[in-house]
Amino acid sequence: MTGNKILIIEDNQLNLELATDLLAANGFVVSSARTAEEGLRMARELLPDLVLMDFSLPGMDGLCATKDLKADPATRHLTVVGLTAHAMKGDEQIALNAGCDGYLTKPIDTRTFVATVKNFIAPANLRQTNK
Q1: Are 77 and 127 in contact (CB under 8 A)?
Q2: Do 36 and 62 contact (CB within 8 A), yes or no?
Q3: Residue 37 has pLDDT above 60, yes or no
Q4: Each residue's pLDDT tens digit, 91-130
Q5: Which tens digit of pLDDT belongs to each residue from 52-97?
């Protein structure tokens, strides 16, 4: 069991449930937000080990929310991974330019999702230790 805290910011209920179920079944403590604004508030309160950020959110989009997290001294150390259906050439670079530490595409590959998330958690734990 990992016990690592993950915040998923996702407005699609099916995607949210799938990601939550996969992560919770593998020992992660999962919280969720349906909007960027709610996600920003929760990120500041929870200081999760990892934020999985959808880009297409109602109101503020996930790229703007990521920029806000990275601009705030209280949350800039958080690891933010884009979790998006935006999978065209150049989309990953757009995500990285916005401050994302990584990029995953939907639909979620249930065979590799948890292992991929764990790969983002290890460096996140080091960053939090050294902040």
Answers
A1: yes
A2: yes
A3: yes
A4: 889 999 999 999 999 999 999 999 999 999 976 555 555 5
A5: 999 999 999 999 999 999 999 999 999 999 998 877 788 889 999 9
**Could you tell me the fold of the domain covering 5-129?**
Rossmann fold (3.40.50)
28 touches 4 (CB < 8 A)? yes
92/50 Cα distance (integer angstroms): 18
Segment (H or E) for 116: helix 113-129
Look at residues 24, 57, 55 and name the one whose alpha carbon lies nearest to residue 6: 24
Tokens of 6: 């993950």
DSSP structural state of residue 77: T
Q: Sign of the CA dihedral 37, 120, 28, 44?
A: negative
Sheet holding 102-105, edge to edge: 29-33, 5-9, 50-53, 80-84, 102-105
The SS3 assignment for 8 reads: strand
**Long-range own/partner contacts, residues 86-92 (CB < 8 A, 24 or more apart):** 86/55, 86/56
